Amino acid sequence: MPDALIIAHGSPADPLPQEAAMQALAVRVALWLPGWRIRGTTLALPGALEAAVAALPDAWIYPFFMAEGWFTRQQLPKRLAAAGMAQPQQVPAFGHEPQMPALLARTAQQAAAARGLAEAETSLLLAAHGSRVSRASASITEAHAATLRQQTRFRAVITGYVEEEPFLRDAARIDGPALCLPLFATRAGHVAEDVPEALAEAGFAGKLLPAIGEHADVAALIADSLRRRAG
């Protein structure tokens, strides 16, 4: 049966919690893929990627990133090659999954219903990373926002970024009921610190939801993607 490595960026300042989170995610994905060997790791913990590649040298590579950008197209292949995987079988990043818009919609709609919020009266704020040098994060975020505007009944679907305009601290100045859904794969510094700080600066009175990568359905989504790719 095939093998797979699920790889996230991780947190260089505090790498161990994210490394543990990726290992736990790999266990959950493996429940959906009987017979597969699945490992999770990060780029941030020294030696972790190299150990994972040594254990599963022919694995499919699943980038647990929200956008196809510099890290997935240049840094990750470079790191894999240095670890001994010269021609990795790398699938598109997590944020580009065809099922992502449906997962975002379902997450937001369930959160609104759980809080007794009428969808048509509630604004949905998508918080994302953004970048001053690359359009990758903003492009996929805006694409998801456009789909959600078509497929849901939220009063508005708004985008805000940590590192580019429209900055989250400005986009979060919303009147009326609102939800903020972070489009991040993991709970690292941006989700734990930057997003809440921006919302507080804006006076955001709505509910901050967990990062989409923490959703309970993510393991099954990743497993389905790997199963399709491996054929």
Overview of this protein structure:
This protein is an alpha/beta fold and 231 residues long. It has helices at 15-31, 48-55, 70-82, 100-114, 136-151, 168-171, 189-202, 218-230; strands spanning 3-8, 37-42, 60-63, 89-90, 123-128, 156-161, 178-182, 207-208. The strands form 2 sheets. The protein has a 4-stranded parallel β-sheet, sandwiched between helices. Strands 6-5-7-8 form a 4-stranded parallel β-sheet, sandwiched between helices. Strand 3, helix 3 and strand 4 (89-90) form a beta-alpha-beta unit. Helix 1 packs across helix 8 (218-230) and helix 4 (100-114) packs across helix 5 (136-151). The protein is globular, with a radius of gyration of 18 Å. It starts with a strand and ends with a helix.
Strands, helices and their partners?
Elements: E1 3-8, H1 15-31, E2 37-42, H2 48-55, E3 60-63, H3 70-82, E4 89-90, H4 100-114, E5 123-128, H5 136-151, E6 156-161, H6 168-171, E7 178-182, H7 189-202, E8 207-208, H8 218-230
Parallel strand pairs: 1-2, 1-3, 3-4, 5-6, 5-7, 7-8
Helix pairs in contact: 1-8, 4-5
